[in-house]
Amino acid sequence: xxxxxxxxxxxxxNKRYANWKAEAPNLxxxxxxHEPKLAHRVCKACGYYDGQKVxxxxxxxxx
Length: 63
Ligand SMILES: [Zn+2]
Prior knowledge:
alpha+beta, two-stranded antiparallel sheet, two-stranded antiparallel ribbon, 16% strand, binds zinc ion
């Protein structure tokens, strides 16, 4: 089995992880209620997906 010849230095691994950044989620607008929603996901606010009601959404009672 291939094994690394030397230890990877702190500088080298730090440089590698320096190129890792968190990405913002792909937000789109819901065509039903115009709330921001995640792409390819049922809308959290109205429960619609692809023009149909897919899930029941609880109404905000305690807000
Ligand atoms: Zn919606």
